[in-house]
Design a protein that fits this description.
With 378 residues, the protein is an alpha/beta fold. The chain contains 13 helices and 13 strands. It has a seven-stranded parallel β-sheet with strand order 3-2-1-4-5-6-7, with helices on both faces. It has a six-stranded parallel β-sheet with strand order 10-9-8-11-12-13, with helices on both faces. GO terms for molecular function: glycosyltransferase activity.
């Protein structure tokens, strides 16, 4: 923890759709899981409010959130909810708020990562400082909540400049604190011949375009990740699998690290305003080069790191050419994997990123007269 600073008492609010546990449902869940683990390792007292079944949950039943229960597995979706789920989450957050108000003396600050508007309003309703991390492009319910807390102890941080700009246009200003990865867990690999794609298997991540790029280059590609849209998987991924493309499902971090680290190149193919792209940093931390679509915050993440190339989003031919070039360079010059990892550790290590966030949490947790927060320069 910060020298001379007493341990913080932090309530971390996670996204509610999926439990925080391995294999992670997505980059957001992985980032929050790492946050809780790191803050505790630094000696802070961390309570987690998250979906039932998450790691790190304590005994406080009011901080356990419901998870979607689909009648048919094929209906499961990252963009929709089963009937009644939204109401159940609303009710659960109301119960969590009431418990927070009753136990206000037990907490210094709320570290909010939820995509639900309720925790934003806790800075006003529970009279507690809240730091909300913006992990997505602007969402209308969150914008409405942000407008309600303009005079309370609230700070917004964004995972990229691109995300911060998008929210600023909508009237929400945020400091930029990019995500990081645990570079002690994401270790350098020896490389290989296959290409790789990892992430949520959903239309906006477009893994089918990664398969097309590999086919264009005559390469073999392995896909790993949770299916977030069953219809998309069946219609766009399954028909493309075969001799040149293989899907291995969701993997726990050690297995995912081995897969990515033993690959020639990683493809990242977002077709939406990608706020950050944690899979980019994970791949680069293993030394595996990355060919990616240039959209959202992607170019920020790879800036200054050798072994990464961006191309116009949706341009499969350019992606294939970039990936083939990176794979060939890596095979010809093995030290490029060493340089790629070193630069990634320097820019995106978990410890570096979370110490910055720790300072923000510590600052906003300090009591101030009349709940007015002074201007701060970082």
């Amino acid at each position: 923890m910060i020298r001379g600073q007493r341990p913080l008492r932090v309530l971390v609010v996670a996204p509610s759709r999926y439990a925080l546990r391995q294999p992670h449902a997505g980059g957001l869940e992985a980032a929050v899981w790492d946050r809780v683990r790191w803050l505790r390792s630094r000696g802070h007292d961390v309570t987690l409010c998250a979906a039932d079944g998450s790691d790190f949950l304590g005994e406080t039943a009011e901080f356990r959130l419901p998870t979607p229960e689909w009648t048919r597995p094929e209906d499961a979706s990252d963009t929709d909810y089963p009937s009644g789920y939204a109401d159940a989450v609303d009710a659960a957050f109301a119960v969590a708020r009431d418990r927070l108000i009753a136990d206000r003396h037990l907490y210094d600050v709320v570290d909010n990562h939820s995509l639900h508007p309720a925790p934003i309003r806790w800075s006003r309703e529970a009279d507690i400082p809240v730091v909300t991390t913006l992990h997505t492009p602007p969402l209308e319910p969150l914008l409405e909540a942000a407008a309600d807390v303009r005079d309370s102890s609230h700070r917004f941080v964004a995972v990229s400049q691109a995300t911060a700009r998008a929210w600023s246009v909508e009237g929400v200003d945020a400091f930029v604190f990019p995500n990081g990865v645990d570079t002690e867990q994401w270790t350098r690999g020896a490389g290989g011949t296959s290409w790789v794609w990892t992430g949520r298997v959903v239309p906006e991540k477009a893994p089918h375009l990664a398969i097309e790029a590999a086919r264009e280059a005559g390469a073999h590609i392995v896909l790993a990740g949770r299916i977030g849209d069953v219809d998309y998987f069946e219609q766009e991924i399954v028909p493309r699998l075969g001799v040149h493309a293989r899907y291995v499902g969701p993997l726990r971090q050690p297995d995912l690290c081995r897969l990515v680290g033993s690959s020639a190149v990683a493809l990242v193919t977002p077709m939406w305003e990608e706020p950050f792209g944690l899979v980019i940093v994970e791949a680069l931390a293993t030394g595996t080069p990355v060919a990616a679509f240039d959209i959202g915050g992607v170019s920020e993440v790879i800036a200054g790191i050798p072994g990464a190339i961006t191309v116009t989003a949706g341009d499969v031919v350019a992606l294939a050419q970039a990936a083939a070039h990176l794979a060939a360079t890596g095979a010809r010059e093995p030290l490029t994997r060493v340089w790629t990892r070193r630069a990634t550790v320097r820019q995106h290590s978990l410890a570096q990123r979370h110490r910055e966030v720790e300072r923000v949490l510590a600052h906003i947790a300090q009591p101030v007269p009349a709940r007015r927060v002074p201007a701060v320069s970082w």
